[in-house]
User: Which sequence fits this backbone?
């Protein structure tokens, strides 16, 4: 598209927007009507919208019937000012994005330019928030799943009055130490709920946020006091739609009937490689109907402002299903020569095109300028937000008076304070306690914690009976029983992880856990990494943690997984050896609310070992037995998880032969790293070079612990299908191997 | 369900099968008609099938209209024997599965018992194969995506006469060293096409197999000789359907119009956690229609044999779309007390229930017995397969005569022989060659290789213009241009990886490559691991490999990724530093057809360094410069990729100060590990403990290379959003840091 006149081009864009996606002649009349600009007005609920189409499709044919808006509730904060101010305000967003990307010479102007109208309507008319307290509990949540378009969100936060995004922050877009990084980061920018950029994650986070709201509302709301009551809005792009994670999460959202989840699909038909026609021709609306969503199509997302408003209203009226509002927009709207092309997706427009866009949209202002009338228009959100929060605080005071117990529980979820003495609930074990798989011991911990932690909830990716994750005192979180705490994720590991991130970031006191086989962390690794980055203290309960699972074979046997997570920043990789260590791992996991934990747990039975302890686990590595003196053992045997038993057995043998042997449990490398040098020296004295490690996984990284004179026993190839004992023997993960290695070096 | 009479139960199961999924009263009449057992007969194409329903759905309501079968082509090998022999043969499959799982006391009997009819029809009536040559090029491909049900496939391979699965192999199911591991493994069992178990992978592999067929057919078929012509069949379960990867791959299959891909969805309504109602209530058929598939529903997959046959016929008649045949079955069909429950999914039935099932299905035989008439019935597949292959060989001989050039090319794809001197096509560089990003140098290599490697094809997950992966001499592989070689995967990394596994395993000479940002290997890690395990030599072109990508920030900056792949078995992690090393990385990647390679490539420009070479890369680690003598440098500086330049700069400075400094490029740890001890000693002499490594990633694992006296410079936290140079400086990835570290130890 290379029209010489910018006016002609703008019209062409509008026409394209209306027709690009629909070759069905029956809709053309409706679509073309959207070329005339609607007036900027309050929503009239009785007027049918011209280009708003609810999907009632057949498999191959769309029935784009008009239908009246059914809801009677008004969109919250309708604005009665004139269209020109609205458009000026929308253009302010566009130019803040253009100017910031231009100054950084880096970023994605296309999405903010195309999504400015829907973003504006959300933040200015629809959403409930207090810019002076971004963490106000009952705020509506907004997620920009297409995170590369973050300048949209920064511009909106700026206009709405958030202190996190001042003018100088916009000017430092994508610069070292700024509050406006290249993708939205909740840990950098108050007002940003989650961390997005990797596509599809944000949509799944939004499902988690909406789940949390539905759960808490069901648990705490009373007929006379709906103390939990907010919506979750999310903007997703074509890229998010293509990612499998979004299908997983949206299938669950439909299953759970998350009626207060409203997703805007920025249908701009452009992705990095060009027109989505080259790789993305599925019928997204039909797919979402299959997933159990309500689907609405706003055909002109560029200027069909009332259609966007009507769609939101309709979405809110549908209470038993999440809604997808497909909003057809023009990427880079307003840029005469780059709109509707991939060139506007991920690069600065360039000085010449910025000028042309200024002319085209009639924008006479300096870069980063917010016109006074626009500023004034937005300034009401400060007092309004304060009032909303005050009103809610009053409501909470009422609630607290009447429902003391519930209020205390809800408060602890809101502020994240763990109940005093909660850790006393953790089970402890003696060497006489029966041998058991750590996955079973994990279930004992989970069930003990469920009694004392009001925010603990979670589940498994269709392996509850293998991962042992059911909370026996609760039922299933389902569409009609959302107050329950066992979440059934189905075989959707990736969606599960990202949903748990959303739950964790909804409220500091929510402690989500999720489970699958350890090897299938591969399916959800991108979500786990986001947990670590965005400081979401999700607990990953990962069972079947080695060749010890036996017959299922190499597709199911983790090898490199422990190493791969030890290398990941801000995550705790814990591999407990028995009951006390499993309890210790849970203590660590619950305490670390800003650092996710992965618990690698055995399928097979393990003995309760003498010397293990919760306190030991908290130090990451510690001595469980030692017959040496003066911190000078002949050899140090180091094990983790199911192999600690083997180390202990080998030590027994070696001691019989007169050796001074120390056995160290190395349950978490990260925690050990954080100990004092003196403590580390007390466990692994520098002078003792005779060290043997044993772990049924990759030896990669173990040189750091055993040193170049030591020996690392492990597995550096794929596993095998056979009974576990046989594999251990064939792979040399045995006490005999430890003894032989020890003797070779001491 | 706990009926006391097994007859009653069988009937109950039939009734359930017919009605379980459909509460629409309009279909009940049709459904109930399926309770009467159809006769076992050849397919009569004129008779409408009673319980076969093509989906013509509205969004919320199924219109289960009868409709006549439209195809006229006959299913290939219709069997005209009687129903009782067919059922006996089907029951043979069931009991081979039951008996093998029972003997192993481990495995999944439920799927084979439920899917035996469709499996039987496929292997006995429909599929084209030669059991004595499992690698015959033009065979139909079969994938059991629900890999846990592998006893179905083993039983079928056994009956069909494959040498890989003899009776003794069935008796060694899931035992050490057997050909019948716990999930299907192509590298263990000829006749198994791909490695499945991790759910959804197989379906995506099947998309890759079907893509390969469509591509090769378009390239090589002639109007008078369709030398490439086979179908790809896949059985998927509920679990596969829930995984996001399957939606990604199936969206592409629909987009590409892979008409010869036929997927059977074993709709048994049971997953490990129980009824799929608890987490999976989406309308799968509607979703697949949205994805552009043809959808058929066989309501009685237990005994509706003719309906299965008709569905296959209909699927074959639809040539422009892949087909999903939803086959409603009863998991564990025939087990009086465990059918239709999760207890039959993943455990042996137990002696008592095995007896009850024998009684219920009228099976008087010893374990593992194949009745003589069943044996005889299947025995024709030996001669038939041989005839099929001979016929094709004759056809190929004709083809070769007439189309010599094409035949030679196709032959090289079939046998995997690389053309002589292919590696001469790789570009080489001198220090005077212009500085460039390794992603651009990678594109030069890919385009050079495309000219000489007939099997090279691939693309990017919507980042072709960032990953620099377009082959300029070719167009896009699309529905109507399948002969082209640029594959547009969309933003679907996971599906992309698994599709490439399918392509690689289709023919030894196909060399698929695929690309995204290195950090997004997290999205596709499960597929990459399968590449490594199943020996698929996929080339992973992973650009933007460090903080060097700059402003996109920590969500996009890999940190732990190099370490995480170095820890993975059977994979080559390569991080080239410049043009020669990029060419070397490609040489290694192309040569290693049974080991996938990951190339980590820079976004930013890098100089062409003196001393780098293709030969050096082949050794994994090698000296690029050295001013020491006698293999006794004062210090060894070790770098990879973009940091090799920094190491070289630091060396220059240190040498100015009189130090004897060796610089080592450590481009692939795996390849270095495979060198002789003498070579290793020549690069990293044991006596030289002063070693400094520098790499813009996790230091995890580097102790192995630098030793406990050395220093590893790297990044053990998440990245940041800022211009790349700034981040390098702030994170201390600088020549100054290397110099300081070197001075501190030498």
Assistant:
């Amino acid at each position: 598209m290379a029209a010489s006149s910018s006016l002609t081009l703008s019209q062409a864009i509008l026409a394209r927007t209306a027709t690009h996606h629909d070759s069905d002649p029956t809709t053309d009349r409706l679509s073309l009507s959207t070329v005339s600009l609607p007036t900027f007005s309050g929503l009239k609920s009785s007027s049918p919208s011209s280009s708003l189409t609810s999907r009632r499709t057949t498999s191959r044919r769309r029935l784009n019937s008009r239908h009246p808006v059914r809801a009677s509730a008004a969109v919250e904060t309708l604005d009665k000012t004139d269209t020109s101010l609205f458009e000026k305000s929308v253009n302010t967003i566009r130019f803040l994005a253009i100017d910031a990307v231009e100054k950084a010479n880096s970023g994605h102007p296309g999405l903010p330019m195309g999504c400015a109208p829907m973003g504006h309507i959300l933040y200015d008319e629809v959403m409930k928030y207090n810019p002076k307290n971004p963490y106000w509990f009952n705020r509506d949540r907004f997620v920009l799943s297409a995170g590369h378009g973050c300048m949209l969100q920064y511009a909106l936060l700026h206009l709405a009055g958030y202190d996190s995004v001042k003018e100088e922050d916009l000017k430092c877009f994508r610069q070292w130490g700024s509050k406006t990084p290249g993708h939205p980061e909740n840990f950098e920018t108050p007002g940003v709920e989650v961390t997005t950029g990797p596509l599809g994650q944000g949509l799944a986070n939004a499902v988690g946020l909406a789940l949390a709201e539905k759960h808490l509302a069901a648990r705490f709301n009373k007929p006379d006091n709906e103390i939990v009551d907010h919506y979750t809005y999310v903007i997703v792009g074509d890229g998010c739609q293509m990612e499998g994670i979004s299908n997983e999460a949206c299938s669950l959202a439909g299953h759970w009937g998350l009626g207060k989840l409203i997703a805007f699909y920025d249908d701009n038909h452009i992705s990095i490689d060009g027109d989505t026609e080259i790789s993305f021709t599925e019928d997204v609306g039909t797919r979402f109907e299959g997933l159990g969503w309500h689907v609405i199509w706003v055909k002109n997302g560029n200027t069909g402002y009332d259609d966007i408003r009507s769609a939101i209203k309709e979405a809110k009226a549908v209470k038993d299903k999440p809604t997808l509002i497909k909003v057809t927009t023009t990427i880079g709207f307003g840029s005469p020569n780059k709109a509707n092309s991939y060139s506007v997706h991920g690069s600065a427009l360039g000085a010449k095109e910025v000028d042309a866009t200024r002319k085209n949209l009639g924008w006479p202002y300096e870069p980063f300028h917010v016109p006074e009338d626009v500023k004034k228009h937005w300034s009401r959100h400060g007092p309004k937000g304060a009032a909303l929060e005050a009103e809610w605080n009053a409501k909470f005071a009422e609630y607290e008076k009447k429902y003391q117990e519930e209020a205390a529980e809800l408060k602890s979820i809101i502020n994240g304070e763990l109940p005093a003495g909660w850790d006393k609930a953790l089970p402890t074990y003696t060497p006489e306690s029966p041998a058991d798989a750590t996955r079973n011991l994990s279930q004992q911990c989970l069930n003990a914690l469920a009694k004392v932690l009001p925010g603990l909830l979670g589940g498994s990716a269709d392996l509850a009976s293998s991962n042992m994750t059911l909370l026996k005192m609760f039922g299933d979180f389902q569409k009609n029983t959302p107050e329950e705490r066992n979440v059934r994720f189905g075989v959707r590991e990736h969606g599960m992880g990202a949903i748990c991130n959303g739950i964790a970031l909804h409220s500091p006191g929510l402690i989500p856990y999720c489970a699958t086989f350890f090897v299938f962390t591969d399916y959800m690794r991108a979500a786990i990494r986001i947990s670590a980055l965005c400081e979401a203290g999700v607990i990953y309960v990962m069972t079947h943690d080695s060749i010890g699972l036996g017959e299922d074979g190499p597709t199911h046997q983790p090898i490199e997984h422990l190493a791969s997570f030890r290398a990941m920043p801000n995550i705790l990789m814990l591999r407990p050896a028995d009951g006390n260590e499993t309890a210790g791992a849970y203590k660590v996991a619950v305490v670390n609310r800003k650092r996710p934990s992965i618990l690698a747990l055995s399928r097979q039975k393990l003995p309760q070992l003498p010397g293990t302890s919760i306190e030991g686990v908290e130090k990451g590595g510690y001595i469980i037995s030692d017959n040496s003196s003066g911190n000078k053992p002949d050899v140090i045997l180091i094990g983790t998880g199911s192999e600690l038993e083997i180390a202990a057995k080998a030590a027994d043998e070696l001691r019989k032969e007169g050796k001074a042997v120390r056995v160290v449990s190395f349950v978490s490398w990260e925690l050990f790293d954080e100990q004092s040098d003196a403590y580390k020296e007390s466990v692994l004295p520098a002078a003792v070079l005779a060290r043997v490690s044993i772990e049924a996984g990759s030896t990669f990284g173990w040189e750091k612990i055993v040193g170049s004179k030591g020996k690392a026993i492990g597995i550096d190839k794929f596993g095998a299908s056979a009974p576990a004992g046989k594999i251990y023997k064939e792979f040399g993960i045995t006490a005999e191997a430890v003894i032989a290695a020890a003797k070779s070096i001491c």
